[in-house]
Automatic annotation (TrEMBL):
<keyword id="KW-0245">EGF-like domain</keyword>
<feature type="domain" description="Laminin G">
    <location>
        <begin position="118"/>
        <end position="285"/>
    </location>
</feature>
<keyword id="KW-0472">Membrane</keyword>
<dbReference type="InterPro" id="IPR013320">
    <property type="entry name" value="ConA-like_dom_sf"/>
</dbReference>
<feature type="domain" description="F5/8 type C">
    <location>
        <begin position="1"/>
        <end position="112"/>
    </location>
</feature>
<dbReference type="InterPro" id="IPR008979">
    <property type="entry name" value="Galactose-bd-like_sf"/>
</dbReference>
<keyword id="KW-1133">Transmembrane helix</keyword>
<dbReference type="InterPro" id="IPR000421">
    <property type="entry name" value="FA58C"/>
</dbReference>
<dbReference type="InterPro" id="IPR001791">
    <property type="entry name" value="Laminin_G"/>
</dbReference>
<dbReference type="Pfam" id="PF00754">
    <property type="entry name" value="F5_F8_type_C"/>
</dbReference>
<keyword id="KW-0732">Signal</keyword>
<comment type="similarity">
    <text>Belongs to the neurexin family.</text>
</comment>
<dbReference type="GO" id="GO:0016020">
    <property type="term" value="C:membrane"/>
</dbReference>
<dbReference type="InterPro" id="IPR050372">
    <property type="entry name" value="Neurexin-related_CASP"/>
</dbReference>
<keyword id="KW-0812">Transmembrane</keyword>
<protein>
    <submittedName>
        <fullName>CNTP5 protein</fullName>
    </submittedName>
</protein>
<dbReference type="Pfam" id="PF02210">
    <property type="entry name" value="Laminin_G_2"/>
</dbReference>
Length: 285
């Protein structure tokens, strides 16, 4: 139809903001110029947000992605996103526009509803997942979650056993550290401990994804598409955890091997431990 968005001033400080009404999964965008005019945008970037206050720029290959815009007022230029975005708010930020005209945009956003289970942690709370038996002995573990943190330090999950085994995922000064010890009767405790750290500035109040895959001593630790492959120390292949796993903090002082750590302050989304939806279980008590 007639018209389209055209700001009063055509400069690089302009943007068109869309409120999608709810957090959704955005998979593609499309643009046109302003109808019946010489106003169109030739390149732009995208920013997204859950709140409308904290904004993140859409990136590909670790660089801020510049989208190719239009070459006339009416042709539609469609871009499928390499990585989908989960957001409520979206901003189109024009970088360049038709030399003989002004900024002019008509836009369309493509996607689908995004259902998720989210738990809020206030820095004093934790979520306990108790096993059906006294001891859980595993040679394979998969833990996946997304988190958004209000502070640079905090335990995301922790489990430990009486034989010295433990696994802890925690934020330390905005970086994510995975500590794991499969236990080993032949070695002193400190010699079988393995720690790996990934990421930085993860306390920026944006969502970050985590995937931990362990098979025997081989571990893949992924944070926001960056993966560290490592092998645990010691001879044991099994992780022996007693009674429970704790998410969001350590509720009581731990056994030897756990030290005083801060609880997590923020949100955890879609938390899965070996295929079990932990937050959904908590919702259903």
């Amino acid at each position: 139809g007639a018209g389209g968005w055209s700001p009063l001033e055509s400069n690089e400080q302009q943007w068109l903001q869309v409120d999608l009404g709810d957090r959704v999964e955005i998979v593609a965008v499309a643009t046109q110029g302003r109808y019946g005019s010489s106003d169109w945008v030739t390149s732009y970037t995208l920013m997204f947000s859950d709140t409308g206050r904290n904004w993140k720029q859409y990136r590909q290959d670790d660089t801020i992605w510049v989208f190719t815009g239009n070459s006339n007022a009416d042709s539609v230029v469609h871009h499928k996103l390499l990585h989908s975005m989960k957001a409520r708010f979206l901003r189109f930020v024009p970088l360049k526009w038709n030399v003989g005209g002004r900024i002019g945009l008509r836009v369309e956003v493509f996607g689908c509803s995004y259902k998720s289970d989210i738990a809020d942690f206030d820095g004093r709370s934790s979520l306990l997942y108790r096993f059906n038996q006294k001891l859980m002995s595993t040679f394979k573990d998969v833990v996946s979650l997304k988190f958004k943190s209000m502070q640079g330090d905090g335990v995301l999950f922790h489990g430990e056993g009486q034989r010295g085994d433990y696994i802890t995922l925690e934020l330390q000064k905005g970086k994510l550290s995975l500590h794991i010890d499969l236990g080993d009767s032949n070695l002193h405790f400190s010699n079988s401990h393995t720690s790996v750290t990934l990421g930085s500035l993860l306390d920026d109040q944006h969502w970050h994804s985590v995937l931990i895959e362990r098979f025997n001593k081989q571990v893949n630790f992924t944070v926001d598409r960056h993966t560290q492959h490592f092998r645990t120390k010691g001879d044991s292949d099994h992780l022996d955890i007693d009674y429970e796993l704790s998410f969001g903090g350590i509720p009581v002082p731990g056994k030897p091997g756990t030290f005083q750590r801060k609880n997590f302050h923020g949100c955890i989304e879609n938390l899965y431990y070996n295929g079990v939806n932990i937050i959904d279980l908590a919702k259903r008590r």
